[in-house]
UniProtKB/TrEMBL annotation:
Top-rank lineage group of the source organism: Bacteria
Source lineage: Bacteria, Pseudomonadati, Planctomycetota, Planctomycetia, Planctomycetales
Organism: Gimesia algae
Molecular function (Gene Ontology), one example: metal ion binding
SUPFAM superfamilies in alphabetical order: Glutathione synthetase ATP-binding domain-like
Domain ATP-grasp per the UniProt entry, residue ranges: 138-325
Protein name (Swiss-Prot/TrEMBL): Carbamoyl phosphate synthase-like protein
UniProt keywords, alphabetically: ATP-binding, Nucleotide-binding
Length: 352
């Protein structure tokens, strides 16, 4: 089987800003991890695209490249990366796309692959676009009484009486917390509000709720859902929002875990186009620690993959790619806790 795995930022498809360099690190970690797992499958051949300045760090991947089981399309310019993408899609039996949600990149990348006539692994186009737009997703969830963080579209028409402090502003279609800002005072919020006035409807305003920032994954295949162990996100707020990886699994009250699964099942029922590896961010508020609130949905591989793959001897990539085969439930290593970081490194934590 010829499998094309593409990570947008790593492929050279765009010029990166300094703020996006952290997303490149996360993207590269996911790319190397999933390619390594796919190459462990018999009869698999993997293709990927890399910008000219990126080098593989894994000896396994370097050996596969020399042995022609891994083909790398190099690009010096975004134009070359675009041509590489089309060529690989036409050669592939299936495509696994990793891309950020901002600027509709994940949607557009998926649409391009579909137009090339290949099979794309993952959620359908409608669901990708809906979940990437946090405002549309909020409206849909609220309409169906699914717990979400109160959200307002940043607008000059928004009455100040509807703003509670502390609060945060985030991109309507963001990824990795890029551009997320918190505000403690009315003056600081007003200054930023004025700066964003020209693009105000591309930003959202939310109260800053304290609680446990949890996340999990649903592997959705042929009408079957399998939920991964719940993890806790490691977030620093010292210099603004900074995602630092996570810990999996974490201890969650039995009733809270059931509530999380009930919440996710309701969301999945509402979005039948979800498929493959789907990440869910969840908040357990301090004032209601057993009542989960949906934060966002990622219809793509997430950084947590680098941690989950270390928590099991099963090949997670095989289950993502082969959507028709029947697999037993994933066997998670009992008594182990993994701390994963955005650069792809991970370590086992001592057990208490």
């Amino acid at each position: 089987m010829n499998i094309f795995v593409t990570e947008y930022l790593c492929s050279g498809a765009c010029e990166l800003t300094e703020a996006e360099s952290g997303l490149l690190e996360e993207g590269f970690a996911m790319l190397e991890a999933v390619i390594t797992d796919l190459l462990a499958l018999p009869h698999s051949r993997v293709m990927t695209g890399l910008q000219q300045t990126l080098s593989l760090t894994s000896p396994t991947l370097e050996e596969a490249n020399r042995g022609e089981r891994l083909q790398i399309f190099r690009a010096n310019t975004p134009g070359e990366a675009g041509e590489n993408f089309k060529a690989a899609c036409r050669m592939a039996d299936c495509v696994l796309i990793i891309a950020p949600e901002f600027e509709d990149l994940l949607f557009r990348r998926t649409q391009q692959a579909v137009d090339c006539g290949t099979t794309v692994i993952g959620s359908d186009l409608h669901t990708i676009r809906l979940t990437a737009d946090k405002w549309q997703l909020y409206q849909l969830m609220q309409a169906h009484s699914i717990p979400v963080i109160p959200t307002q579209l940043l607008s000059e028409k928004l009455p100040r009486s509807m703003v509670s402090l502390p609060c945060l502003i985030k991109h309507r279609c963001g990824a990795g917390g890029l551009g997320l800002e918190t505000f403690e005072t009315e003056d600081d919020l007003q200054k930023r509000w004025n700066q964003l006035r020209s693009a105000e409807e591309q930003f959202l305003l939310q109260p800053f709720l304290t609680g446990r920032a949890l996340s999990t994954v649903a592997l959705i295949r042929a009408g079957h859902r399998e939920f991964f162990p719940v993890g806790e996100q490691q977030i620093s707020w010292e210099l603004g929002f900074e995602y630092q990886g996570g810990i999996i699994p974490v201890e969650v009250d039995v009733s809270a875990l059931q509530n999380i699964h009930d919440l996710l099942n309701r969301v999945c029922d509402l979005l039948p186009g979800l498929a493959g590896y789907v990440g869910f961010d969840i908040l357990m508020p301090d004032d209601a620690p057993n009542e989960p609130v949906l934060v966002e949905i990622n219809t793509r591989l997430t950084t947590s993959y680098t941690g989950y793959r270390r928590l099991t001897h099963d090949n997670l990539a095989a289950r993502i790619i082969d959507t028709n085969a029947e697999f037993p439930h994933i066997e998670w290593n009992q008594g182990e806790t993994v701390r994963f970081r955005t650069d792809g490194s991970s370590s086992l934590l001592p057990q208490s």
